[in-house]
Amino acid sequence: MRKKENKIVVFLSSKLYSLEAVYGAAYVFLDRAYVYLEEAPKSKIKVTLKGKNKLTGKGLEGLKDEFLNELLNFSLREQISKSNKKIREYIVARALSAASAAVIPGRRPMGQEDSQGRKLPGGVIPWTGERFKEKPSGKKGRIWAKDPLGIAVPWEEKYLAKKQPRKKKGK
Amino acid sequence: MIIGFDKKFYALKAIKNAAKAYEELADFKVKTDKNKITVEANNIDKDVKNVFKDEFCNYVLSETKRIKSTCP
Q1: Pairwise CA distance, residues A84 & B51, whole Å
Q2: CATH 3.30.750.24 at A7-83, yes or no
Q3: I want to staple A34 with a disulfide (CB 3.0 to 4.6 A). Which of A39, A50, A171, B7 is the partner?
């Protein structure tokens, strides 16, 4: 520690901490301290932290400890990022392919092919599993017009009609 | 003022970007050796002379991180 110069030096083993993690931790401290990196003997990294404001001995020690904590944080983050890389790429690829299938008109989602691998015209109604050949048009062709679950029927028509006769009996 | 940067930690492109960003505050000459990149800064603005080196180093570090970093 160089209290007069408002500096503290940290030596890090490059075997334990990657350069990526050092950059990440240093970046977090750029607004509070001046950070300078140098190579030190025995494959070590010399990190000099100089406070932007005047710091006491304890303040400098605290700066060093916080830097080391941040370094650990970034090391872990890097490790998780590496271990999740494949699944992350897979999820993004799946999302992009699904999005492109939805956007291109006439193109259906994956799996809409016949046994010989030819693309089938039309698509599938998700709630019935029925296949329609072409783009539905007209009143007959409207998918929602079939209403197999009775969603479009108003509540009054569905339930109130049954209740009303009971009231009449009571009178 | 001469500032040395270790090639292992600092990218040449980052130093050039920093020199371009600071060109109104000083005149720069950038030299590369085997292990080091040396920046010579002359005619430094008087108002920022006391913090110039440290601020310049921080800027170079942030640029290096931006260029080299791959971690999300």
Answers
A1: 42
A2: no
A3: A50
Kindly determine whether residue B62 and residue A19, on different chains, have CB atoms separated by under 8 Å.
no
Domain boundaries, chain B: 2-68
Q: Which residues of B touch A50 (CB under 8 A)?
A: 54
Query: Within an 8 Å CB–CB cutoff, is residue A35 touching chain B?
Result: yes
Q: What is the ipTM of this complex?
A: 0.88
DSSP 8-state class, residue B5: E
Classify residue A23 as exposed, middle or buried by CB count within 10 Å of its CB (0-12, 13-18, 19+): buried
Q: How far apart are CA B17 and CA B5, in angstroms?
A: 14
Digit-coded pLDDT (tens) for A52-100: 988 888 889 999 999 999 999 999 999 999 899 899 988 988 888 877 7
- CB pair distance less than 8 Å for A20 and B71: yes
The verdict on A24 touching B (C-beta cutoff 8 Å) is yes
Contact between A64 and A8 under an 8 Å Cβ cutoff? The reply is yes
- What does the pLDDT look like over B2-59, one tens digit per residue? 999 999 999 999 999 999 999 999 999 999 998 899 999 999 988 898 899 999 999 9
> How many CA atoms are closer than 13 Å to the CA of B37, on its beta-carbon side?
18
Give dist(CA A35, CA A29) in Å, integer. 8
